[in-house]
Amino acid sequence: MIFEICGDSFEAVLLAEKYNVKRVELCAALSLGGLTPSIGLIEKCTEIEEVEIHVMIRHKEGGFVYSSVDIEIMESDIISAKEAGAKGVVFGCLNNDNEIDLKQNKLLYKLAKRLGLAVTFHRAFDFCVSPKKSLETLIDIGFDRLLSAGQENIAEKGIVLLNELVIQSKGRIQIMAGSGVNAANALNIANTNVDALHFTSHLKSGGNNDDGMGKQSVQDEQKVKSIVDLF
Question: Pairing mode, if any, of strands 216-219 and 202-205?
Fold first, then answer.
């Protein structure tokens, strides 16, 4: 089983290295579903050569429908992520009907591939009105993998659809299960035959919500160890 940590810090990458986790999806603002991290953070994290850094390309909160200006920003962020040493990028564009935006995704995909980056379509997929049709669209574009919770808020609830997506994909795209993955449900989710498990490595600690500055995250080493030790 391949593991991917969803992290927002250099410490998350160090933890991935310690437990032989293949990838880190590097984000900022995890409480908002993940936004594009700073260039400085990407550069620091890519110093750990044993862990692939895949960068979230999502510069604003509030959904996955983007304007032409948004796409220009995302193109710049993809280029910057590559220059900072990233091995992959993670994005997903929908239209107002909650379908895959073919033009926008193709544009970003082609740019990423010209730069030699792996490409993951993120959990925007879980908002698509037709998951089976959407999967075929992503395969046709050429995405390397799909991150999904089976159109549920946590992957454990989406097991039936995750298994159906694995069967439908026939190896044409990697299916990675994410959201709410922990030691208590990881084996059950893995039984869908997904290619990878995606989970956070942190706890919220410090700071004060009342001051509007949010809470800092600290690494939950026991969580990572307990999941990895199952396999």
Answer: antiparallel
Task: Supply φ then ψ for residue 122, to 5 degrees.
Answer: -90, -165
Angle between helical axes of 102-114 and 131-141 (0-180°, round to 10): 40
First to last CA, the chain: 7
Helices 159-169/131-141 angle, 10° precision: 40
Q: pLDDT tens digits for 116-160? A: 999 999 999 999 999 999 999 999 999 999 999 999 999 999 999
User: Which among 9, 8, 10, 13 has a CA at the least distance from the CA of 224?
Assistant: 13
- In b/e form, how buried is each residue of 145-182, taking b as 16+ CB within 10 angstroms? bbbbbbbbebbbbbbebbbbbbeebeeebbbbbbbbbe
Query: Would you state the CATH architecture of domain 2-228?
Result: Alpha-Beta Barrel (3.20)
CA-to-CA distance for 121 and 41, rounded, in angstroms? 22
What angle, 0 to 180 degrees and rounded to 10, lies between the N-to-C axes of helices 221-228 and 10-18?
30
> C-alpha distances in angstroms, 130 versus 135, 149, 187, 204?
9, 15, 27, 35
